[in-house]
Write a structure and sequence with these properties.
- The chain is mostly beta strands.
- Helices cover 13% and strands 35% of the residues.
- The chain is built from 3 helices and 10 strands.
- Strands 1, 2, 3, 4, 5, 6, 7, 8, 9 and 10 form a 10-stranded mixed sheet that branches.
- The chain is globular, with a radius of gyration of 17 Å.
Amino acid sequence: MRIFAQSPHWVAIDKPAGLLSVPGRSPELADCARVRVQAMFPDATGPMTMHRLDMDTSGILLLALDAETHRALSIQFEKRRVKKEYVAVLEREIEADEGEIELPIAKDWPNRPKQKICFESGRWSTTRYRVLERSGGRTRVLFEPITGRSHQLRIHAADELGLRAPIVGDRLYGDPTLADRLLLHASMLEFRDPATGDVVRIESDAPF
């Protein structure tokens, strides 16, 4: 598992698609990014994870190596001071070059782990997007999630009230036969180092 950047207090790794961010509920889902980082940094303490990537999503995952850093970075995530960008490929060509999606997301209990758009019980979520390329009937986009709801980018892309264009390879909201993985990659993360006060910007090219 590749390390993008690190300090004595945090580490940013390249989480591969297919790997959980944190342990699952059953023993066979124990392997995850957090467990692997703990093995790489055996002196790390605290909860470590401030945010997660879906198992199917690849890219930059930030983990804290001590409890104090975890608290400070968690506040940045909660107050939306951390900037995030994702690259995705959509199943079809969309018309608008850029825009913003605001829709409420709720758990789709009968169809877990799926989420759904629900104006009665959903939590409002916001995603900005910009088209990078249109080619072969597909669209390559840059997503900037302002909020961090579960499956936010996937459902904002796929839903009829969103872009009406599922992410290629999405086994929950699109056609899983179009690719051997979900074409969604966490490509940029920007935060303030709690120890130094410096702004840290980490970038990663999408592997697709």
